[in-house]
Structure formats: C-alpha cells, structure tokens
Automatic annotation (TrEMBL):
Keyword field contains Heme: no
Lineage, broadest ranks: Bacteria, Candidatus Daviesiibacteriota
Record-level Gene Ontology MF annotations: glycosyltransferase activity
Protein name: Glycosyl transferase group 1
Lineage top rank: taxon: Bacteria
Coiled coil spans: none
All copies of domain Glycosyl transferase family, residue ranges: 160-330
Gene source species: Candidatus Daviesbacteria bacterium GW2011_GWC2_40_12
Pfam short name (any one): Glycos_transf_1
Length: 356
C-alpha cells in the first residue's frame, strides 16, 4: 500500500508543537511497516501512485485542505477547542471564510481520525461529519519518556536549581490551560506551614516571554498569570526554566513530586501520559479528554473547585505511600498506549478507505 503523507507540519511553526509531534511519530512508525510505502509531500503535485492521502492536521481558520481530492483522503482533526471556547479564540471575517471552505473540504474525506472520544463528540457537534466515519485513535508518549536513574537526574536538578519537592506543569499558557487558577491554589497551599518550601515549576518558553505591551486576546491569560505571580509575591516560589530539550523534559518529569494538568479542556493531554511514563504522580482536571487518558491512575478535581485541588495537593505532597501508589498506577496506564498501537489502528483506517 502506498500512502501519501502531508509533512507540512514538519516544516512550519507546528514542528515544535503537538501537531509536529504527531506527524513526526506517525511518519517514523509508518516507515517501519514492511508492507507500506510512505510518500512524503507538501504539495499533491509532488507525489505519484499514492493509494491514500493523509493530512495529519486540520486548521479551522486557514484553508489548508483541498476541496477537490483525486485520491481517497484521510484527515486528522486533533480537536475543535477554538470552537468549544469561541470567546477565547475570536475569529475575523477571513477566518470565518476559511472555516467555511475547510468544512466544505471535509465533506468528501473518507474518514476523520481524532485523538479521543471527547474530540469525536466535538467534531460531530461543530463540524457535522458522519459519526461512523470519525475514528478515535489515541496518541502515546515517546518511548524516551521513562524512569531514569539518579546519576542522570542530578545534573538537571543542579542546572535548574530544582528543590527536593516541587509541583510541575509543562506546556502552553493560553486561557484553556487555566494557569491563573493553578497559581491561586498554589498561593493558598504554601500559606500552610507544612508546605512553605514547595516550589511550582512551569516548563515552557512561553513563561519567559515579555508580553505586557502586546495587545492580543490569546495573551490575556499569560498576562493575568504574570500579574498574579507578581502581586502575590511568588517570584521566588515559581521556577520558570524556559524551553528545555526533550531529554531534559524527561528528567523534569522524573524529578517532579507531582505533575498537574489544570486545563479547562484538552483534546488529548499528552503531558499526562509523559508524566505517567516517568513515574510522576498526576493530578488532573476533569476537562475534555483528560479522564480518558488518565483513567484510574490520576486524581481528578472539578474545574470550579479550588479547595478540592488544594486538598489533593496536600494529600499527594504529604503522603509518600500515596505518591508511590499513583506512580505505579501511572506506569501501568502509560503502558496501555503505544505508537505501535496508534499506527496499527491508523493503517486499518487506510485499508477501510481504499476498499470502500
């Protein structure tokens, strides 16, 4: 079977984001299949003989998917968060026009692949695609996310001056990530005598950006986060290492006392699996697909309940046996996901598209 895979995300700003991660791993694992030939392209005119075309991303507000499709086409729609939270993602006239074209282009796709059952429900609601043609295929953590030994970890602890105990978050800082809420909880937590030495580590280049003089709606949450850190006097309690490479990120997850995913919503929530695979206990919101990914291995809090999250942090930070139990459960949960499974299920969608 010859598969044409659009690799545009590997040559754009997406390469360092989740879409790039998905495209890169999909390409790597498809190429390992003996019965497949993968043809990489950025323009359809670049390839010949493909039996199926796969676009591994879908942009709601840019016209990236052709309306005319000479070859059976699969599209991956990772989530529809900008439609679920439309107030946080204002769209101009051009964006609305592009969304109309994109929805039109979806109509003659053979199948949509998405990352979770939660995203499948959103696609049904907002993009009006046939339910039987939306296939949820979960992602997986890269195998390099694993438990590391102390000799590997100690240089990272020293380099970033990481304390013995810390709460970790990794990712973006848009409104959906709910980080001002996390800082409110953290402030209350460290006001208690037993937790005054706890630090919060926010991993990601976005946390070092100077955005105060930039007027953009998508930066308002980051501005609020920075303002709360400053107004609460938490500059010395919050560590912001900036961008770290993937090997260092693995070490951060290994060193974290607890990883927290406070998001209002996630289409998948890959950092939860990465944390599990590194043995980190996880506390997560119950937004979107996060309970699908975390299963019984994470502790969940309601998004409107600040005291509930604080109570969970107190329990996990104060109880070594609970942390050990969550770590064991997380490792088992991470083992249920793999890129081999993801690609096997994706190939099955290709076969169905060709035979129908």
């Amino acid at each position: 079977m010859k598969i044409g895979l659009n690799v545009t995300p590997l040559h754009s700003g997406h390469r360092l984001r989740g879409i790039g991660y998905y495209t890169r791993n999909l390409l790597t694992y498809l190429k390992r299949e003996k019965d497949l030939e993968v043809l990489e392209f950025t323009k359809l005119s670049e390839i010949k003989g493909a039996q199926i075309i796969h676009y591994p991303w879908f942009d709601l507000f840019f016209h990236t998917l052709p309306i005319l499709k000479p070859i059976p086409t699969i599209i991956t729609v990772h989530d529809t968060i900008p439609l679920v939270f439309s107030k946080q993602y204002p769209v101009g006239i051009r964006g609305k026009a592009n969304m109309y074209l994109q929805k039109l282009a979806l109509k003659n796709c053979k199948f949509i692949i998405t990352d979770s059952l939660s995203s499948k429900k959103d696609i049904l609601k907002y993009l009006k695609f046939k339910e039987e043609k939306i296939i949820a295929i979960p992602l997986a953590a890269d195998p390099k996310f694993r438990i590391l030994q102390d000799p590997v970890l100690m240089p990272i602890r020293r380099k970033y001056n990481l304390p013995e105990k810390f709460i970790m978050y990794a990712g973006d800082a848009n409104a959906i990530k709910n980080l001002p809420f996390l800082v409110d909880v953290f402030r209350q937590l460290i006001s208690e005598s037993d937790f005054q030495e706890i630090k919060l580590v926010l991993v990601g280049g976005v946390f070092l950006k100077n955005v105060e003089n930039i007027n953009h709606p998508e930066l308002e949450s980051l501005k609020m986060l920075n303002r709360k850190i400053r107004d609460y006097g938490l500059e010395d309690k919050i560590i912001r290492p900036g961008n770290v490479d993937e090997d260092e990120l693995v070490a951060f997850f290994n060193l974290a006392t607890v990883y927290i995913q406070p998001s209002l919503y996630e289409g998948f929530g890959l950092p939860v699996l990465q944390a599990f695979a590194c043995g980190a206990p996880v506390i997560s919101s119950n937004g979107g697909s996060l309970p699908e990914v975390g299963g019984q291995a994470a502790l969940y809090f309601d998004l409107s309940n600040l005291n509930q999250l604080k109570s969970l942090l107190v329990d996990v930070l104060g109880d070594k046996s609970l942390r050990h139990k969550l770590s064991e459960l997380g490792l088992k949960q991470a083992g249920r996901f793999s890129w081999e499974k993801t690609v096997r299920q994706t190939i099955e969608v290709y076969r169905r598209a060709i035979t129908k």
